[in-house]
UniProtKB/TrEMBL annotation:
Superkingdom: Eukaryota
Organism lineage: Eukaryota, Fungi, Dikarya, Ascomycota, Pezizomycotina
Domain Rhamnogalacturonase A/B/Epimerase-like pectate lyase: 120-337, 468-525
Signal peptide start-end: 1-22
Name this protein carries in UniProt: Related to exo-beta-1,3-glucanase
PANTHER family tied to this protein: PECTATE LYASE SUPERFAMILY PROTEIN DOMAIN-CONTAINING PROTEIN-RELATED, POLYGALACTURONASE QRT3
Length: 844
């Protein structure tokens, strides 16, 4: 029986006219802005270290020699039909959480004895009581450490020792710190979130150390914390204390956590003292304390968080690119403090769709020297801010430069508009009335966001473990071809059951077809991995995971999954999305990522050696014109180093994300890195929201490198590939991957781009003025209603080429990690001469 679920589409159609308003000139700053109460805070490494990557992994000393993913065991095709299920009814909202009750038979295939590796670890099985009286710290650490996991990896590799540390409902008294490692996920019962309670005699200064101490912060991947309460209210209010050290990077998820601290205390909720290369955190609440988030990271998307009864919501010690969306500041002295870092430590901050109530200053920032300054440092964009009982909205250099609500988009930084000077103009506080596509908005006029689903409203009998379906064996062992039975089970479950993929690697030799009505949940990033001749032809690329067919409408939601290749497969498109939802969020991806090479279980790790770029995959993500998807926390990584060994790989994935969608698409906290032709390619795309995107080019490109783009690929017009015809025949720093291309389209809203080029051929930058790359981004044609806020680059001579002409350069916009432009509005319909005519006390 085939089942489907449908919902009623409810979208508010709003539009605003393009005009420009101005704000009053500076007034005196209110008293009480001192940050002297902050404890000493030294971030590591300093800006002088330049944050260059120096990656290495933790090796698998004893790999499972019996597993060969390149010679998969044939699938077992049953001769009888799969038993049908009843369609979903109204969610029963049980008192117990399905994940706690379901069979846990996940494995780690590529280590010795991986078939018996214990992934799921309920802390109560290790002696934790959760009674609020007994010290549970040692039991929780034992759950983390079991199996030889430790700070040096113990030969289990970076990806070889995954662990879920599960907390049932209860209060877990903690007398000392807990140390976690890569590939570790803390998960609590979301129905009644468990509390980790700091004891009054706690022995250390931090409750949870989530960063693996063996690895640098920029390579702390595959870590998660969700559905918990962290409580320090019983600990001394006058002693500096931090609830969580979150010095981590991509493919990490922090969501649905309450940080509960004493009011008027010296406590901090979350800190990133050792830096990192982060992507996303969201749906967090901070109560009491001195600081909610103490941020020292390369870039971040922070979504839907509240800060209540504290001195400072977000203290930025260092960040190049931050997008803060859906914040709620209540009874806070300072909402966002961006003044504590040294010169050049703050690139850009965007504050979107937020509310401040009883706040002295919403944003505190440094002065940009003068209104005619060309620096891009400390760029601020505020888009849609509601205030009530607020003293100052923005204070810069000790002066209030903005008061009250922001009903459009307020800009403090360098701006480029049609009709303006070719070098851009410095906006010392200008509000633009901008257009938002109604397809992207919720009923309140904010950009739509969605909390990662837990499916806690369903019972365990409405969830199917894909490895436990009688008569249709699925192994996830990195050795067996699971294609047929995966497809059979997904087709049967559509609209009838949630499908749970226990930890493991699921080999597929043909397309996995995800029909409307599908909900998928993985575990420690369960991997679907392509193998076989179907995906081998670059001239006829094939899709590994296809979500819906063109024109289909329905539900398709995927959480906690990884998409990869088991072999060198130049014809593999890892993920294609065709489907749209009846309602916003019906089609969505949360904490789901891509990896090509760099890890055990893939022939790419060993085959892509030898000094020549190896065409390992065709395209990571394709959002087709009929699709509409909400994507949150996604990393599309072609490996620049080996996580599980020491193989010197030169891997070439042709393309990152090809986006042609038109029906409403949200990219919240995404990163695509090291893909050969481009990282993001928006082609005739419409109704797109991008909130913080991060990329790096392939380290092997540029002067002295083994190939110049488009090599080793031949451009494919059917996939709208760039040809690099703008470059000379032998111009290696021009023939490097585009970070982002925008080819036509309409209604594009981009906030916070962090595009970093570190190397030429894995060595020093050899380009003009010490740059590594000539051109970062390009616009082709005439996209309409396109708003690009806070474009940051590193090592790039030119930030943006607009229809063949260089528009934005590093020389004209120094700041951030190299350059930053606060507003690119040349395709927005807003004219600089209109700003001049309507502006009041605006200097250009």
């Amino acid at each position: 029986m085939r089942c489907q679920v449908s919902f009623i589409l409810s979208i508010r159609f709003l539009a605003s006219l393009s005009s420009v308003l101005s704000q009053d000139s500076a007034v005196s700053v209110p008293a009480g802005q001192s940050t002297a109460l902050y404890p000493a805070y030294t971030y590591i490494p300093s800006i002088d270290a330049d944050w260059k990557p120096h990656p290495h992994g933790l090796p698998i000393v004893q790999p499972n020699a019996t597993i060969d993913p390149l010679s998969p065991r044939p699938m077992n095709i049953p001769a009888f039909p799969l038993a049908s299920l009843s369609p979903f009814g109204p969610p029963p909202k049980p008192s117990t959480y399905w994940y706690e009750e379901i069979e846990h038979n996940g494995i780690s295939p590529f280590i010795t004895n991986g078939s018996s590796w214990k992934v799921y670890r309920n802390v109560k099985d290790y002696g934790a009581t959760g009674n609020g009286k007994t010290d549970d710290a040692a039991a929780i650490q034992a759950a983390i450490d079991e199996g030889g996991r430790g700070p040096d990896g113990n030969g289990l590799g970076t990806t070889g020792a995954p662990a879920i540390i599960y907390f049932p409902e209860g209060t877990y008294l903690m007398s000392r710190s807990v140390q976690s490692y890569v590939d570790t996920f803390f998960i609590g019962n979301p129905i009644n979130r468990p509390t980790l309670k700091v004891s009054s005699d706690f022995a250390h200064s931090t409750l949870l150390y989530m960063k693996d101490p063996t690895l640098g912060a920029t390579i702390n991947f595959y870590i998660g914390v969700k559905n918990l309460v962290l409580d320090s209210t019983d600990y001394s209010a006058n002693t500096s204390f931090t609830l969580m050290d979150w010095s981590v990077s991509q493919a990490t998820q922090l969501t649905n956590v309450l940080f509960k601290m004493p009011v008027s205390s010296q406590h901090t909720g979350l800190s990133t003292p050792e830096g990192g290369s982060g992507t996303y955190m969201g749906n967090l609440d901070f109560e009491g304390g001195l600081i909610g988030i103490n941020m020292n990271n390369q870039q971040y998307s922070i979504k839907d968080c509240s800060f209540t009864n504290m001195q400072t919501g977000i203290l930025i010690s260092h960040v190049f690119d931050m997008v803060i969306q859906g914040m709620r500041f209540l009874n806070v002295e300072i909402g966002v403090d961006a003044t504590t870092g040294g010169v050049g430590n703050i690139g850009s901050v965007a504050l979107i769709d937020s509310v401040a109530q009883n706040v002295q200053t919403v944003v505190l920032t440094k002065s940009q020297v003068t209104a005619n300054s060309t620096t891009g440092d400390d760029s601020i964009v505020i888009d849609n801010l509601q205030t009530n009982g607020v003293g100052s909205t923005v204070v810069a250099g000790g002066k209030t430069i903005l008061k009250g609500d922001v009903t459009g988009t307020w800009v403090y930084g360098n701006a480029y508009l049609k009709g303006g000077p070719v070098t851009g103009a410095h906006d010392a506080g200008v509000t633009y009335q901008t257009f938002r596509s109604p397809l992207l908005l919720d009923d309140g006029g904010n950009y739509f966001t969605m909390t990662p689903p837990t499916y806690q409203e369903y019972t365990v009998d409405q969830v199917v473990n894909i490895k436990s379906v009688k008569g249709f064996p699925v192994f996830g062992d990195g050795q067996t071809d699971d294609t047929h039975n995966i497809n059979a089970i997904l087709a049967r479950n559509a609209g009838c059951a949630i499908t749970f993929f226990p930890a493991g690697t699921y080999l597929v030799s043909d397309t996995v077809r995800i029909p409307p009505g599908t909900r998928i949940v993985g575990e420690t990033l369960s991997a679907i991995s392509a193998v076989g001749s179907k995906f081998a032809n670059a001239d006829a690329p094939q899709v590994m995971v296809q979500v819906g067919l063109p024109g289909q409408v329905g539900v398709a939601q995927i959480s906690d999954m990884l998409f990869t290749v088991a072999d060198v497969l130049p014809g593999c498109i890892l993920l294609q999305v065709n489907i749209a939802g009846f309602s916003q969020g019906d089609v969505g991806f949360w904490n789901s990522h891509f990896r090509v090479g760099g890890a055990a279980g893939s022939g790419v790790e060993t085959k892509c050696q030898g000094g020549v770029p190896c065409k390992a995959a065709f395209l990571l993500l394709h959002l087709t014109p009929t699709s509409s998807a909400y994507i949150e926390d996604m990393w599309g990584w072609t490996a620049d180093h080996d996580l599980d060994g020491d193989y010197d790989q030169i891997i070439s994935t042709g393309r990152g994300a090809l986006i042609e969608s038109t029906r409403g698409t949200w990219l919240v906290g995404t990163a695509f890195e090291h893909n050969t032709l481009y990282q993001y390619n928006l082609v005739s795309a419409e109704n797109i929201f991008i909130g913080m995107q991060q990329s790096e080019t392939p380290y092997w490109q540029g002067t002295g490198g083994p190939a110049q783009a488009p090599a080793p690929w031949t451009p494919n017009a059917g996939f709208f590939d760039p040809t690099f015809s703008n470059c000379g025949v032998d111009d290696p720093n021009c023939r490097m991957a585009w970070y982002q291309r925008i080819v036509g389209g309409a209604n594009l809203n981009i906030y916070g781009s962090g595009f970093w080029t570190f190397f030429n051929d894995n060595g020093d930058c050899m380009g003009v003025n010490g740059t590594c790359q000539n051109n970062a981004c390009e616009i082709v044609g005439s996209p309409t209603e396109t708003y690009w806020w806070n474009l940051n680059t590193r090592g790039c001579l030119n930030l943006l080429v607009d229809d063949g002409a260089v528009l934005e350069t590093q020389n004209n916009n120094p700041g951030s990690w190299g350059a930053v432009v606060a507003a690119t509005l040349t395709h927005s319909g807003i004219l600089r001469r209109l700003v001049r005519r309507l502006g009041k006390k605006i200097l250009f």
